[in-house]
Amino acid sequence: MNTKQIAILIGLAVIVSLFIGYRIGTQGEKTSAKTTITGQEGEFTLLTTLEESVASPVYGHVHALAYIPETKTLYLGAHYGLFKSVDGGSNFVKLAPKGYWPSEDVMAFALHPSDHLTVYAAGHDLGVVKSVDGGETWEKSDSGIRGTDIHGLTINQRAPDYLFAFSVDYVVFRSTDGGASWKRMDDGPENPSVRSLAYMAVQTDMDKSMRWDNWGLLFAGTADGIYESFSCFCGWVKSTEALETTVYSLTTHHSDLRTIYAATKDGLFKSLNEGKEWSKLNGMTSGKRFGALAVDPSDTNHLFAATEDGIVFESQDGGSTWMLK
User: Could you tell me the pTM of the whole model?
Assistant: First the structure.
């Protein structure tokens, strides 16, 4: 064994001893998450401390979550692919998706509000794809969208044939036929760094006065907070000055037309009045960088959240308390 190899072994031993000392000295609240990953290379366990999130060697950065209650399936979309859990996020299997799936980098999901087996996904060089069997097989669903780098994707819960996508450099597109075809709508918010989209099918005062049938608000999470646009696409405004942070994920529920959640680099937030005011969700999730959020379409209080490096939390009470998976 040469000198270089000995030095490497000594360095590794120091790191291991420091880690063991940290684990022995840590008691009380759970401070690490153990996730089992099964892939083509076999099964292994990922142990991640609950400090500020970093990129994961398994996921890269986590961007999206979607939960299908009928099969109790939690999908996780990340830089390194599509992952599936059937135990609420404790263990994940990396998938080799069937059908049309040209890229691994998943940025967003959109779930049909009543037919939960219909799932849309989007991402870098993925465009928009659609599954009608709960995520088992996929087909191309982005005819008319310019570009294939899709950062945001959402569905109108009141009229689920309406979908919205944000294509980098080509901005906002809308489908009115369940993703079969798309048309460009506008330039999106002034801040070009859009990370997510969410639709809230609430009837606004403008909708009432104009007597529109296709009413609602489209939210965009950006590197400079949240922007919103009426369904008429007649301009974007800053939704609030209370959330001046990078917003990675937004989620709403089809039966709760006022509540919206945000996953940000500064933690998790909740609004009860259509994004005007926000409160931070503290407790176990405080101080973590969160990349993704999902709400159970069958239960408005059942939530999942994932940090950027794949630590999954679950809440049964609308985000008041959380359990580490």
Answer: 0.82
Q: pLDDT tens digits, residue range 194-225?
A: 999 999 987 666 655 655 666 789 999 999 99
Q: Residue 268: CB partners within 8 Å, gap ≥ 6?
A: 261, 262, 280, 281, 285, 290, 293, 305, 319
Which of 4, 5, 66 is closest to 306 using CA atoms? 66
Tokens in use for 230? Answer: 């009426």
Query: 144: alpha, beta or left, given left = phi > 0 and alpha = psi -120 to 50?
Result: left
The residue type at 18: L
Order of strands, sheet of 62-68, starting from the edge strand that comes earlier in the sequence: 42-49, 32-39, 91-94, 81-85, 73-78, 62-68
CA-nearest of 27, 41, 123, 48 to 306 is 48
Element (H, E) at 5: helix 3-25
With residue 305 as reference, give the H or E element that holds it: strand 303-307
Q: How confident is the model at residue 283 (pLDDT cuts 50, 70, 90)?
A: confident
Nearest CA to 322 out of 297, 288, 298 is that of 288
Contact assessment for residue 148 and residue 127, using Cβ atoms and an 8 Å cutoff: yes
Domains and CATH numbers, the chain: 33-324 (2.130.10.10)
Q: Which amino acid is at 149?
A: D
Cβ-contact 172, 186 below 8 angstroms: yes
- Could you give phi then psi for residue 122, rounded to 5 degrees? -150, 160
Q: How far from 243 is each of 192, 194, 223, 314, CA to CA, in Å?
A: 17, 15, 11, 23
Residue 84 one-letter amino acid? K
E strands within 141-193?
A: 150-155, 163-167, 171-175, 183-186
